[in-house]
Amino acid sequence: VFPTRPETLMELLNTNCYDWEKPKISKRLLARTLGQGLVNVEGNMHKAMRRVVAPAFSGKHIRDLVPLFYAKGLAFVDAMAREAKQNTDGTLEMMGQMSRITLDIIGAAGIGKDFNTIENDEDVLARLYETITTDPRKGNLVLALLITMYIPGWVARQLKGTIYARRANAQKQLRHEVRALIQEKKQSMMEKSDDQKDIIAIIMRSGEYPDDYLVDQLLTFLAAG
Fold this sequence. Notes:
About 70% of the residues lie in helices and about 0% in strands. It is mostly helical. Helix 5 packs antiparallel against helix 6 and helix 7 packs antiparallel against helix 10.
């Protein structure tokens, strides 16, 4: 069933959204990349998380980010112009560049760090997300769905040389990289907390949260990018 009427979508996603929970399989699948962040949790836990992150999405805060969006938009145009000059047939590969520029934007807005992946094809996070989002359906579709939805990550990692193993390893490494970013952010917050306006800084200032909570939140926001 694919709801399309605006009234139905409003009912599902806004008015009575807590009456419609995601299937357990979907939540388990999302958790491999997003952790237990805002997109994946339900009910009272989701309400609590929304209250924590709400200040980061106020009108004033979004307006303060406009210069960042504009600057990154210019960087994206410049990167596309350079690529167009290098390609004799005039074609452009857009998806990779779009992923990198949105990752740069959410990196700056989410944790106050410019990954600059638009200028660096070898950035670790960009490479990990590229591996995770690679389409496995070039092989057996049924097998791809079964492995992706039902097989635990530690089992998938044993399937050496397959996209499933590469994806599971990338998901594990991604969490490790994000945990390192959180540790770096904690140190930065100890030195100059009030000057930082990114989402994770706002969450940290609102209370004491365990590292796993912060990692899950950052994984969710980075995936949005």
